[in-house]
Design brief:
It is built from six helices and two strands; from the N terminus they run αβααβααα. It has about 170 residues and is an all-alpha fold. The protein folds into two domains: about 70 residues, no CATH class; about 70 residues. A two-stranded antiparallel sheet has the order 1-2. Helix 4 packs antiparallel against helix 5, helix 4 runs parallel beside helix 6 and helix 5 runs antiparallel to helix 6. It is globular. The relative contact order is 0.13.
Length: about 170
């Protein structure tokens, strides 16, 4: 999410700004705060994969909806109010850790173990250093740089048991 702002020509926009959201259309995924799904479909897919904690559980469910031959749609007329980061604004280190952890889990589940290792390598070799530099140079925040370092330590500690867990879905 930071890379799409720092390198917009090299990365896809996180919020899909390339199309007019006033139009309803099929999409790959919708954010969990905006997600509505018929109960029978949700139950037939065994609900959310509980390995995902706060991030990518919605993306995983949408991927499974698509794999089941159903569609995921952006509905332009729907009105939803969502206060972003309401549950995680005060715990930046844990928020980043869970985001990166879930990103790796999602990647392994849908794209294989090698891809998940590549995502983790990217987290340690690119995302973390860029986030630390951004915190120090752009935000001038030692506290935020410290949160990134704590998240990196948590991710490093979790990595040995992170991948290879048998997929439930």
């Amino acid at each position: 999410m930071l890379l799409d702002r720092l390198l917009p020509r090299l990365t896809h926009q996180h919020f899909m700004t390339e199309w007019d959201h006033a139009d309803s259309r099929p999409v790959d995924a919708v954010m969990g705060a905006f997600l509505m799904i018929p109960r029978p479909l949700f139950e037939s897919l065994d609900g959310f994969d509980e390995r995902f904690f706060v991030y990518f559980e919605d993306t995983d469910l949408c991927a499974r909806v698509l794999a089941a031959g159903r569609s995921v749609n952006h509905v332009a007329d729907a009105v939803v109010l969502h206060r972003g980061q309401g549950s995680s604004a005060q715990v930046r280190d844990r928020r980043l850790f869970y985001f990166l952890r879930s990103q790796a889990l999602f990647t392994e589940k849908h794209h294989g173990r090698a891809a998940a290792y590549a995502v983790l390598a990217g987290a340690f070799l690119a995302q973390m250093p860029i986030r630390i530099l951004h915190a120090l140079l752009a935000k001038r925040s030692l506290a935020e740089a410290g949160a990134v370092l704590r998240a990196a330590r948590m991710l490093a500690a979790a990595t040995p048991r992170l991948l290879g867990v048998a997929s439930r879905h």
